[in-house]
């Protein structure tokens, strides 16, 4: 394993894993023991070892979401010992390494807990509510022409930086899972801010924020009460300032809108 520590001692761990057959079934926590886990493994590689052991025994492997395993896609949504993505700050589950734990530790692994994110099976949840919010307005549909030269539309650096920072949201859902109200405001505000800051997004900025907030409410996400747990657990550091911008965009849109609902 590249970059591994040859002196690192393997660990034996107890896992308490949420098992649920499907959306309608009742779930429960099941205990598993995994042995000889390298501290240099990622958390998902450790789950792979668990599943290999289960398959050898003829048992059903633990379902969990993953894709890129590089902290880009946002698929690896797990609650680990009561924290979204685990104990490492600014890290997705796939970037979490087992050296953050100690030999003999007990690790509790659960799916996201939110009504808007129903459990598909075990640790896998349905986050398509986020997709529907994006479909409601998180895009630019006006004709912006072909790809312009990078410097053709001058954008002040501070604006470009703020738009880029908002655009780094990977839509993992940690903000919803960490929020006591299961609010999606940090996710929605990042998408609204990203486009509202750039000239290409100005044409539709009023309808965009109205439609996205309306869809967020339809999906059943809770209200934001500014606790800040969403930003604290966000693996890419999306700022609470985006929620303030979303509120300003929404109030401005409503002030000039015929849609008063």
TrEMBL record:
Its cofactor is [2Fe-2S] cluster; [3Fe-4S] cluster. Residues 160-190 form the 4Fe-4S ferredoxin-type domain. InterPro entries: 2Fe-2S_ferredoxin-like_sf, 2Fe2S_fd_BS, 4Fe4S_Fe-S-bd, Beta-grasp_dom_sf, Helical_ferredxn, SDH/FRD_Iron-Sulfur, Succ_DH/fum_Rdtase_N. It comes from the Bacteria. Gene3D superfamilies: 3.10.20.30, Alpha-helical ferredoxin (1.10.1060.10). Pfam families: Fer2_3, Fer4_8. Belongs to the succinate dehydrogenase/fumarate reductase iron-sulfur protein family. This is Succinate dehydrogenase/fumarate reductase iron-sulfur subunit.
């Amino acid at each position: 394993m590249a970059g591994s520590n040859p002196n690192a001692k393997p660990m034996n761990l107890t896992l308490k894993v949420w098992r649920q057959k499907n959306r309608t079934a009742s779930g429960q926590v099941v205990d598993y023991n995994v042995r000889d886990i390298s501290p240099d493994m990622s958390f998902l590689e450790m789950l792979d070892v668990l599943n290999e052991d289960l398959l050898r025994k003829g048992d059903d492997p633990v379902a969990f979401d993953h894709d890129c395993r590089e902290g880009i896609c946002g698929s690896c949504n797990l609650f680990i010992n009561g924290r979204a993505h685990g104990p490492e700050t600014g890290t997705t589950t796939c970037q979490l390494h087992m050296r953050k734990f100690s030999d003999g530790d007990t690790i509790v692994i659960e799916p996201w807990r939110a009504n808007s994110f129903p459990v598909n099976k075990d640790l896998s949840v349905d986050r398509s509510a986020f997709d529907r919010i994006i479909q409601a307005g998180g895009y630019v549909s006006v004709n912006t022409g072909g790809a312009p030269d990078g410097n053709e539309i001058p954008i002040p650096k501070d604006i470009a930086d703020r738009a880029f920072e908002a655009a780094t949201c990977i839509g993992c859902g940690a903000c919803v899972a960490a929020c006591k109200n299961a609010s999606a405001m940090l996710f929605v505000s990042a998408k609204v801010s990203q486009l509202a800051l750039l000239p290409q997004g100005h044409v539709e900025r009023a309808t965009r924020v109205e439609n996205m907030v309306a869809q967020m409410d339809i999906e059943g996400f809770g209200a934001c009460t500014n606790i800040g747990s969403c930003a604290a657990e966000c693996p890419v550091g999306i700022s609470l300032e985006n929620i303030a911008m979303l509120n300003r965009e929404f109030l401005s849109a409503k002030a000039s809108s015929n849609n008063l609902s």
